[in-house]
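Forwarding the complex inputs:
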Amino acid sequence: MKRVLPEKYMFSYQGDGDLAAIGTGETIHTCNRGENIAIFFINNGIYGMTGGQMAPTTLPGMKSSTSPYGRNLDTMGHPLSLTEMIAQLHGTYYVTRQSVHTPANIRKCKQAIKKAFENQKLQKGLSFVEIVSNCNSGWKMPPVEANKWMEEHMFAAYPLGDIKLPKE
Amino acid sequence: MDSNIRLMKGNEAIAEAAIRHGVDAYFGYPITPQSEIIEYLAKEDPFTKRNGMVVLQAESEIAAINMVYGAAGCGKKAMTSSSSPGISLKQEGVSYLAGAELPCVIVNVVRGGPGLGTIQPSQADYFQSVKGGGHGDYHMIVLAPSTVQEQYDFVALGFDLAFKYRTPLLILSDGAIGQMMEKVVLSEEKPRDNTVPDWAIVGKTPNRERNYITSLFLDAEVQENQNKRLQKKYTEIRQNEIRFEEFMTHDAEYLIVAYGISARISQKVVETARNQGIKLGMLRPITLWPFPSKRLVELSQQLQGILCVEMSAGQMVEDVKLAVECKIPVKHYGRMGGIIASPTEVFENFKTLFL
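Prediction (whole assembly, two chains):
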């Protein structure tokens, strides 16, 4: 879409499944080509929309409907962090990981999203914003508990902050 | 290069046609025997050297067809090409294009299968092409070129039909037509057309409702209505867009039905038969979907038998049998695995089967 309408803003809003599993190849190559778009990746460690199945981002030992005894690293592989992977590609311009669980984090995340679109306006190339999120229904936790669990476990595996900043 | 007549490979003719017809974007992935299409486009570099047409080598066939979905959603003329195994990979995307009612042109330069198969020509993707191919109730319009000239001409015709009906359209070629060289009369180069269809996604402006392109309709009733819309469209296509060509059918007692490269061979068979006083004719479907069933029924009144010549185990023959309701004998002759039958071989088998 960006190739045929380069003057328009384009962004994708993606989850663990399409970005880090079934669409891994497309994600990597889109980033590697440095397409002048913004990618927003919502990482909640689970397949929420299909009803709580294991995602590539599911943490070790974490229970889901397809890992009911917890994710076993020997048989189910390790959590996959596409964000660190694509930061290494020459095609990416700005890569960051944010969250929206506190007002302060929301402000930071807003700044990151704004920056992603500013980069696009300036034709700088690909901006990638991961937003670590919770899924209280999929995780089977009340919202407050889910936020706490996210801080304790998700942020350990997926630390917040800028991963690749433009060389000024 | 000023002359409008050129000697070209079938694959090159498709690529040149895309540029001259003002196609906005081509997304492809190399596979034999159709790689000349993307190679030709890469060499011509129309994005910088001609009319700004986007040419992109995708990371896979799946990525390519989804890029087509994106560009088509923007109202642009987008196309892709591949050969059998690659076309199988694209089927999910084709189903999405059909469901979202997006126009595009897909080219299949067929090779022998199943599986990785061979790189030699075949017509064994007929079922996949005309019966849907991907999941769900849908059809593509399927055009079957039998000359390099038709490879060229069907790109423009393909886009006209695809946009008229908002449907993906398939050009079903084969490794022989894709690779062989023939004279092609080229059309004048058209500038790319910047008209934006009213359904296209180009960014909402304040003076209109937003457009929304999707093939997802979770409510079963909404989905059924979408299916009804599609079926209505297919009925309209069946009524208006059947194309075929006849050769010596006026007094024919026997008929060969063949498309693509098999029609070229069968034309020779008809000539041989006529020289021996056998009243053989040929019907060549140009649209494989919609299929020229009505014309076959008309012709069957005067016929004693029909021979389907296909490079497959017998696929189109089923549609011929359905058309004439098996009221006259319908037989199949074909070679598989990438072998092209010779006219002599087809003629001998015709005689054995019918005379």
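The interface with chain A takes residues 24-25, 54, 56, 58-60, 62-63, 66-67, 70-71, 73-74, 76, 78, 201-203 of chain B (CB under 8 Å).
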